[in-house]
Write a structure and sequence with these properties.
By secondary structure, the chain is of the alpha/beta class. The protein is 31% helix and 35% strand. The strands form 3 sheets. Strands 1, 4, 5, 6, 7, 8, 9 and 10 form an 8-stranded mixed sheet that branches. A two-stranded antiparallel ribbon has the order 2-3. It has a two-stranded antiparallel ribbon with strand order 11-12. The protein starts with a strand and ends with a helix. The protein is globular and about 70 Å long.
Length: 217
């Protein structure tokens, strides 16, 4: 599996990542969502360079012209709820893509920090033979991403898979390598070393869903 880590090459992503992590900045939900959106746009552009294209004959006001358009059928798949602003950035660029949404959440057990990840809701077109771009800002253990992928497989088998996350843990990167097809490409803004007892990435940025949309009861 190919892993593209944006932190290895400083760019605008570095600036947006800094703002997402900084406790003095991330209290502004609009700015937090906007930065997720921006990183989504940048990753969408980079992924677009890996797609297949066809020549298209068009006519301008001054004459004929040969242009290129995406040949692949793209489906953007997102894990609710934290994935929504990140997804929006991808959709800004892949504006004709089909969209899939999966609700995956942690159900904590009565004692301790252990939990099960459950999928409750799936809305998806057929993904058979298409390019699936799975986006979720935080890739902590990889189990939610795997469950979302398995749920989407009920809608067909994609020709190609891209996974995009803002922050991943080293543990989750290894997990994804073991549980997804070998030719999957993983795009991450940064890879952090640790996952704590609550399965949060350290240093990470906290709970992306709460920071984007407010705390849940």
């Amino acid at each position: 599996m190919e892993v593209i880590n944006f932190a290895e090459t400083p760019s605008l992503v570095s600036r947006y990542m800094m703002e997402l992590r900084d406790v003095n900045i991330q209290h502004d939900p609009l700015r937090f969502r906007t930065n997720l959106d921006r990183i989504g746009e940048i990753m969408a552009y980079e992924i677009s360079r890996r797609l297949n294209y066809n020549n298209v004959d068009i006519t301008t006001p001054l004459g004929p012209c040969v242009c290129q358009d995406i040949a692949d059928r793209v489906v953007l798949g997102t894990i609710l709820r934290a994935g929504l602003p990140f997804h929006h950035g991808f959709l800004n660029y892949f504006d004709r893509a089909e969209n899939a949404f999966v609700s995956a959440y942690r159900r904590y057990k009565e004692k301790g920090d252990s939990f099960d990840v459950l999928v409750e809701y799936l809305a998806s077109p057929s993904i058979e033979g298409k390019t699936l771009v799975l986006v979720d800002p935080m890739l902590a253990t990889g189990s939610s991403m795997e469950l979302a992928y398995k749920a989407l497989l009920t809608k067909g088998t994609p020709a190609k898979i891209h996974i995009a996350s803002v922050i991943a843990s080293r543990q989750s990167v290894e997990y994804v390598k073991q549980h997804f097809p070998e030719d999957t490409v993983l795009w991450v803004g940064a890879i952090d070393d640790e996952v704590n007892s609550h399965s949060y990435i350290v240093p990470g940025l906290g709970d992306a869903g709460d920071l984007a949309y407010g705390e849940k009861d």
